[in-house]
Design brief:
Layout (H helix, E strand, L loop, with lengths): L1 E3 L5 H4 L5 H10 L4 E10 L2 E10 L8 E8 L5 H15 L4 H14 L8 E7 L2 E6 L2 E6 L2 H12 L6 H7 L5
Antiparallel strand pairs: 1-2, 2-3, 3-4, 4-5, 5-6, 6-7
Helix pairs in contact: 3-4, 3-5
Length: about 170
């Protein structure tokens, strides 16, 4: 069901060359280097291009950013629900925690249009998220950040080949 397309198009190569994303990345990770890239597909549909960068060009790193360039439109509700589903795979939440998580994600996410960018950065002990050029979240909740980034970066993700490409281990 899930598939990773290793060959990257010119459009994918532009993911971190976009003026907005480049300016944001240079502000927080001035000497960023590419770690890896991957295309996330579901039922043969390109959902988004993902790029992982870090200070060192390796993952894990104290400072890194995940950039998603969407290839489809999505409602905010669908993104929030899918994110919660992915987080629940990793952790069992109480009802109170789920309500708080849903509130946080509803404040963070926006409706997504094709070609929109989402940038999630982990900068040592905090995280900063941007949607296009708008800062949508800044948090020091390390547990949340680890679980959030692990949606894409953990070995047992829904698409291990995607993760391997993203973290530069697909050789």
């Amino acid at each position: 069901m899930f598939n990773t397309n290793i060959a990257l198009s010119e459009t994918q190569n532009q993911v971190i060359k976009n003026k907005i994303s480049e300016t944001i990345l240079e502000k927080f990770i001035p000497n960023f280097k590419l770690v890896g890239r991957a295309t996330y597909k579901f039922l043969l549909l390109d959902i988004y291009y993902a790029t992982l960068i870090s200070e060192t060009g390796h993952y894990p790193s104290d400072k890194f950013a995940l950039i998603l360039k969407y290839n489809r439109d999505f409602t905010k509700k669908s993104v929030v629900e899918e994110t919660i589903k992915q987080l629940e795979i990793q952790k069992q939440y109480s009802n109170k925690e789920l309500i708080e998580l849903k509130e946080l994600l509803n404040e963070t996410f926006r409706p997504i249009k094709k070609n929109d960018f989402f940038i999630a950065m982990k900068l040592e002990e905090k995280g900063i998220f941007y949607f296009k050029d708008e800062k949508v979240l800044e948090t020091k909740n390390i547990d949340f950040l680890n679980l959030f980034f692990n949606i894409w970066l953990r070995e047992d993700s829904e698409d291990p080949n995607f993760t391997k490409s993203l973290i530069g281990k697909d050789n």
